[in-house]
């Protein structure tokens, strides 16, 4: 089956022109102007619309046992939601408990996606302990095509690694050419601050941010950078929320550390007043690191525009709010904010929120938008030029975006499995009219029309030697 998209404004991280894109089978075969459709090809007129490479979310949680419960989405709901939002590839965090066998955990996470996901998928392998058996296990996982690790400098006693484990993980990553993604907070400081606040009777969701202030995150980034500098490992700081944390990473880069920074869409568009909403509504907005004061947002947008921040992900971690009778997942933390399952469902909305609040407001231009939401992740995580660009030989992952459409976000219409929408009632500019994954039409007129199971595991080779 061939598909010719004509007369669209084709935008990549370094090109912006009116032209055509020809896809044959699973691959882009020609890009230019005045292309002729092969016999039997479907022709889509994209006049007045934008044509982007498929977007990549490099930080999601789909299957996630966490804080005594499980994330609500599976690859049925999450992959459909991602595609309607223009995301054609997901990179999920594998997060085994400290006592779990890494290889078995990896196989379990992978099995949740295979045969079900509608979009393509890959993984970051969580390293939650490091003992004598760990190197062989991680080498087996890397050989299978998962060329990135994840470490937590938080969640003491659950997912977090100690300094010896951190050093050994980074040293092995350097040997294997694997990039290490890292959640950076000082877990001991978090633990002490949580205990202090609870002892003072400060138990609501509004106290989550004061228990994990910017200093805690900044110190966590500095800590990671010291270890990266000493081992030579390449590192990627996930969900960076504040000025101090970005500065800590940039200072390390000036010393020669190979480091990159991710932020996530909630930090760019929400501020800490969300978690301060009354009647426990603030629990909907509890994530870690927390949503910060509004003064951090202009800095993050500037850092994105300058390239100091490389990517915009979601850290999608979906948990129900509940009916208000104590039975909901977020309601597990009524009376103790430390027990609120962390996460904001956003995989469906990332691209449209970034366009609405970034491109449409003039904060970032279109090539920066594409780079941050697609191309940079493809390059960092061993997917480029198969993914993240529009050029002959690349996978035919395409998004035709209509900037003239305005829609309102709501839990009544979203495809994510949660009972609430963190952006309820927000208007967004633009809609993903057509989305393809390897040449197959998955979204049409903004609606999912594809088939579950079309998605493939993206085998990646190490690129960070």
TrEMBL record:
This protein's name: D-hydantoinase
E.C. number: 3.5.2.-
Gene Ontology terms: cellular component: cytosol
Sites of N6-carboxylysine modification: 150
Any GO MF annotation of the entry: hydrolase activity, acting on carbon-nitrogen (but not peptide) bonds, in cyclic amides
Record has Hydrolase as a keyword: yes
Cofactor: Zn(2+)
Keywords of the record: Hydrolase, Metal-binding
Post-translational modification note: Carbamylation allows a single lysine to coordinate two divalent metal cations.
């Amino acid at each position: 089956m061939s598909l010719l998209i004509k007369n669209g404004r084709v935008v990549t991280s370094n090109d912006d022109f009116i032209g055509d894109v020809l896809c044959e089978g699973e691959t882009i075969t020609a890009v230019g102007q005045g292309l002729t459709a092969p016999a039997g090809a479907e022709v889509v007129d994209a006049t007045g619309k934008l044509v982007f490479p498929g977007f990549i979310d490099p930080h999601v949680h789909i299957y996630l046992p966490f804080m005594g419960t499980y994330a609500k989405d599976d690859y049925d709901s999450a992959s459909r939601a991602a595609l309607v939002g223009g995301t054609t590839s997901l990179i999920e965090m594998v997060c085994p408990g400290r006592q779990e066998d890494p290889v078995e955990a990896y196989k379990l996470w992978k099995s949740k996606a295979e045969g079900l996901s509608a979009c393509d998928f890959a993984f970051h392998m969580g390293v939650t302990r490091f003992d004598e058996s760990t190197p062989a296990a991680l080498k087996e996982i890397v050989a299978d095509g998962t060329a990135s690790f994840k470490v937590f400098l938080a969640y003491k006693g659950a997912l977090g690694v100690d300094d010896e484990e951190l050093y050994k993980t980074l040293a092995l990553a350097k040997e294997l050419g694997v990039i290490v993604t890292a959640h950076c907070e000082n877990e001991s400081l978090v633990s002490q601050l949580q205990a202090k606040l609870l002892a003072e009777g400060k138990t609501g969701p509004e106290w989550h941010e004061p228990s994990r202030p910017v200093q805690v995150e900044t110190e966590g980034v500095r800590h990671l950078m010291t270890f990266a500098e000493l081992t030579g490992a390449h590192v990627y700081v996930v969900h960076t929320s504040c000025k101090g944390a970005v500065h800590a990473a940039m200072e390390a880069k000036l010393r020669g550390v190979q480091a990159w920074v991710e932020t996530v869409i909630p930090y760019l568009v929400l501020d800490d007043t969300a978690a301060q909403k009354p009647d426990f509504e603030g629990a909907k907005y509890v994530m870690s690191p927390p949503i910060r004061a509004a003064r951090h947002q202009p800095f993050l947008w500037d850092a994105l525009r300058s390239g100091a921040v490389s990517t915009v992900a979601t850290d999608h971690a979906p948990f129900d709010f509940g009916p208000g009778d104590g039975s909901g997942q977020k309601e597990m933390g009524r009376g103790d904010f430390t027990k609120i399952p962390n996460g904001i469902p956003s995989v469906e909305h990332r691209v449209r929120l970034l366009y609405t609040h970034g491109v449409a407001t003039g904060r970032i231009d279109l090539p920066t938008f594409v780079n941050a939401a697609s191309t940079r992740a493809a390059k960092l995580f061993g997917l480029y030029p198969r993914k993240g660009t529009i050029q002959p030989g690349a996978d035919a992952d395409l998004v035709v975006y209509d900037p003239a459409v305005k829609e309102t976000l709501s839990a009544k219409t979203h495809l994510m499995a949660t009972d609430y929408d963190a952006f309820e009632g927000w208007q967004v500019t633009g809609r993903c009219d057509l989305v393809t994954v390897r040449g197959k039409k998955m979204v049409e007129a903004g609606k999912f029309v594809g088939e579950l199971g079309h998605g493939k595991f993206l085998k990646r080779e190490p690129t960070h030697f």
